[in-house]
Amino acid sequence: MTDVAVRGSLWLFAVNLLSKGGQIAVTLALAVLFTETELGVVALVVSVVNIGQVVQAMGVYDVVSRTARDPLRLAGTVLTLSVGTGAVLAAAVVAAAGPIAAALGTPDATGLLRLAALTLPFTAAGGVQMALMHRDLDFRRRMLPDAGGMFLGAAVTVTLAATGAGPTAFVLGLVCTAVAQPVLAAVTGARLRFTWDRGSAAEAVRWIAVVGPGALIAVLLVNVDYLAIGHVLGPEAVGGYSLAFRIAWVPYIMVAVVLGGVLFPICADLVRSGLGERLPETVHRFTTAALVVTGGLYVVVALLADGIVVLGEQWAGAARILVLLCGYGLGLSLLHVWYQALRAAGHARQYLALETAHLVALLTALVLTTRRGPEAVAVTQVAVVWLLVPVTWLVLARAGLAPRRVARPVAGVVAGALLSLGVRLALPEPSGVLGLAGTGLALAAAYCAVVLPVNRTVLIGLKERA
Question: Membrane-spanning residues where (predicted)?
């Protein structure tokens, strides 16, 4: 891994640590302040907005990272496309908010949906600015717009929630975050003008036509469970599931997404430079890092899942869901890293086929399992994602990208998990936040003692050249 990649990884990790850490802190605060139904309403509104954000930003990061054209000219054209799409989507959600809310089992959330929809044009603009930084692995400049916007929104949300504003508090915080991001990005130097270049637009549209559907499928994959539970079981059932999901989401978003965000431009640069023979080793290093680091985090979270009751006894039922979703998160982390390699190496159609198969399998299974409750939905997620792992590895192998020597990191993760389980059984039951933190540190130390020595040369953060 090059020094640039290492620095990029560290800065992107720091950005995600603050911005996503702020999100999980808000989630935990809302779990204390909100009822299950209120938290479920928030989760459903966010799911709709997330889908809109992906539609307006389809292919933006990819085309800006890969283009051989003037990146500023292309980014200005993409800005016009993305913000225009965001404005149209916002108007559509505002107009259809009533039927959408009713279909999700939350008819009282119509006003919240309309307010949340107003964020879309702003997040579209911020996304293009982030893409320019992404192209050059200049993640340091993302700190202010990403983390600064998140902290502003978090402060608004928690302050209003503490005064009894309910789900409205979260949506107002969402609006503040969305508006702040492009403004703060401009402060860091990512200033773009709305432009239109026919050649740039044609390139963007061609790439969006290939990877755009995959991006839409990807966001549906991580939101369709919320929508299914809300439609069939109501927002109260979504509340406990969404809390478990957001906790299980943290290792994925903090580690796998960071690694994938660095891997894509590295692989794209290797392809542009005619160094494609280095791709398998690069994929191996990032796969090992994803498996070892997210694996350790998920082991600790799963073994401490019962501690979720520190947020309130009403969340006790979410503990079993959290354990299951840890298995889901580990599988999804591997898939995410491998998908970035496929896309960067020009195998976008295979990526789209895999994502489509994942969504079809998940939707089919959810039709059969959702009525059995949130825990059954979590089991479904685990089963489907691990069905895709060997299939995706075979696709990587056919493309000449499959990581080599995976037995060692897999064995290390299993051994570390077993030792951590032994430590967990030997220690007394933790009580309170400090007890959970102390036990978590002990479990992490046991895991690292086994895993780090045998994988130290390939873990992210070591300046060993690819």
Answer: 12-34, 40-64, 76-100, 112-132, 204-229, 249-271, 283-305, 317-339, 351-370, 376-397, 409-427, 433-455
DSSP-assigned letters across all residues of 117-163: HTTHHHHHHHHHHHHHHHHTT-GGGGIIIIIIHHHHHHHHHHHHHHT
What's the one-letter identity of residue 281? E
Domain boundaries, the chain: 1-212, 222-460
CB 454 within 8 A of CB 412: yes
Per DSSP, the three-state class of 442 is helix
pLDDT band of 90, cuts 50, 70, 90? very high
b/e burial code for range 343-353 (CB count within 10 A of at least 16 → b): bbbebbebbbe
The string of DSSP codes covering 304-370 is TGGGGGGG-GGGTTHHHHHHHHHHHHHHHHHHHHHHHHHHHTT-HHHHHHHHHHHHHHHHHHHHHHG
Question: Model confidence over 362-403: pLDDT tens digits?
Answer: 999 999 999 999 999 999 999 999 999 999 999 999 988 887
- Six token digits for residue 350: 């295979």
* Contact by Cβ (8 Å): 455, 416: no
For Cα atoms 138, 255, 392, give the angle at the middle one, nearest 5 degrees. Answer: 105
Helix (H, G, I), strand (E, B) or coil at 428: coil
pLDDT in tens, 290-312: 999 999 999 999 999 999 988 88
CB 294 within 8 A of CB 451: no
Question: Which amino acid does the sequence have at 250?
Answer: V
Paired tokens of 257 = 């997404």
Segment 88-94 long-range contacts (CB within 8 Å, at least 24 positions apart): 89/52, 89/55, 89/56, 89/117, 89/120, 90/52, 90/117, 90/118, 90/119, 90/120, 90/121, 93/48, 93/52, 93/117, 93/120, 94/118
Alpha carbon distance 171, 163 (integer Å): 15
User: Quick one: tokens of 162?
Assistant: 């503490």
Distance CA 397, CA 252 (A): 24
Is the pLDDT at 1 greater than 50, yes or no? no
The burial class, CB within 10 Å (0-12 / 13-18 / 19+), for 164 is exposed
Structure confidence by residue, pLDDT tens digits, 121-158 = 999 998 888 877 777 666 777 778 877 888 899 999 99
In sequence order, which residues have a C-beta less than 8 Å from that of residue 20 and are 6 or more positions away? 250, 253, 254
Average pLDDT, the chain: 86
Distance, CA of 46 to CA of 42 (rounded, Å): 6
Alpha helices (runs of H) in 136-278, residue ranges in sequence order? 149-162, 167-187, 198-221, 224-233, 235-251, 257-272
